[in-house]
Structures are given as C-alpha cells and as structure tokens.
Amino acid sequence: LFRTVAMMVPDYAMIAEIMLYSFGFVNARPMSIKITTTYKLCSEQLSSQFHYDYGMRAVKAVLSAAGNLKLQFPEEDEGVLILRAIVDVNLPKFLSHDVPLFNGIISDLFPGISLPEPDYEELFTNATKVCAERNLQPTKLFMEKLAQMYEMMIVRHGFMLVGEPF
Question: 17, 73, 121, 148: least surrounded by Cβ within 10 Å?
Fold first, then answer.
C-alpha cells in the first residue's frame, strides 16, 4: 500500500553550471558557485520577507538573464554578465534596508568588478515626455524604479507592482 520513496535536495550549483555551459559560458563552474553562494548568503543575511525567493526559481531567473546577456554581449567578461544578471533580477524586489546588505554580498563575491551603466536614454526621454503630459515629476527615484521595472519585464514572464501609487 505505501512504498518508500527517497528524495534529495537538487544540486543548484551543478544545474546552474550545466545551464551556463549551454549558454556558451567558458567559466561556468566558478560562475555557478557564485550564483548559488549569492542566494545562500542572501537567505542568511537579508531580512525575511514573503516575496523574497532564493530557490531554484530565482536561480533559473538569473541563469536566463545571464544567457540573454551572453547572446547580446558575447565578448563581455563573464563575471560582468553574471553580476549584471544577479543585480537585474534581484535588486528591484529588495526592500531599501536590504539593498546595502545585498551590495555588500555581491561586492564580496565579485571583487574588482564594476558594472557599466546601461543606456536608458531613450526610455528616460520618453518617460520624461509622458510625465510632462500628465503633470508628473520625473524624480530620480521614479526613473530608477522605471529602469528596474524595464529590466524585470525583460527577464520575467510576469510581475506585479505593489505599493502606493505615488
């Protein structure tokens, strides 16, 4: 009637390594370890929030983002691509008091790597026009959240905005 079942926790680093190799990464093993270590440290050091996810779904989102970045920038340093993917996927969902802790984690795991500033000129120009038409102020924080929302739209199939409208 009842059969015994053996289960084990999946090896996220190995799954990430294989996926990174399939995207064309040469240094997939150290990069996969950095991705999984990032989530391990985040789960230990950041505050506990209902919407924070450090499981396979989060790792898969970073891997997909890294794969897309590798397609767009095949000659870019792989550490920069992985760091950009981690930041783009995770930073928008963190609360303001967790952001400095997250920045500390990634600066420890990716020493000496600084991210180039993405070019949002066209996005910001059009957003400023729309804000002027609707009598809104395009503050620095508003534009930053707009850029984060844009990055989330590229990475995820769907997402939800939560909070006060203004």
Answer: 121
